[in-house]
Amino acid sequence: MRFTHFPAPLHGPQRDYTYYTEEPRITRVGRAMGYEPMPYQRYVWAVGTEYRRDSLGRKVYHYPDVLVSTPRQSGKTTLLRPV
């Protein structure tokens, strides 16, 4: 299935491109598991996994906690499986 529409989120931060993100790798894992991630899932992965490296080379995540609230049967399980 190919998703073509992604309405702007009502709440939540915008993607900060000064941070790295793990979204491309998580998307590859999701596709390897046999499904095409929805646009909102890729957005959550991109923003929720933003990180920078500290002086010792460790990942320091921009957001220590990520809360996702969606209606029933909107792909929450497939959002978390590849992570």
Structure class: mainly alpha
Major sheet description: 2 strands, antiparallel
> Care to count the β-strands?
2
Tally of individual helices: 3
What fraction of residues sit in β-strands? 5-15%
Please trace the helix and strand order, writing H or E for each element: HHEEH
Distance between the termini: 21 Å
Shape by Cα distribution: globular
Kindly report the spatial arrangement of strands forming the biggest sheet: 1-2
Radius of gyration: 13 Å
Helix content: 25-40%
Mean pLDDT: 91
Low-confidence stretches: none
Please write out the topology:
Elements: H1 23-32, H2 39-48, E1 51-53, E2 59-61, H3 76-80
Antiparallel strand pairs: 1-2
Description:
The chain is mainly alpha-helical. The chain contains 3 helices and 2 strands, in the order H-H-E-E-H. The chain has helices at residues 23-32, 39-48, 76-80; strands at residues 51-53, 59-61. A hairpin with a 5-residue loop joins strand 1 and strand 2. The longest helix has 10 residues, at 23-32.
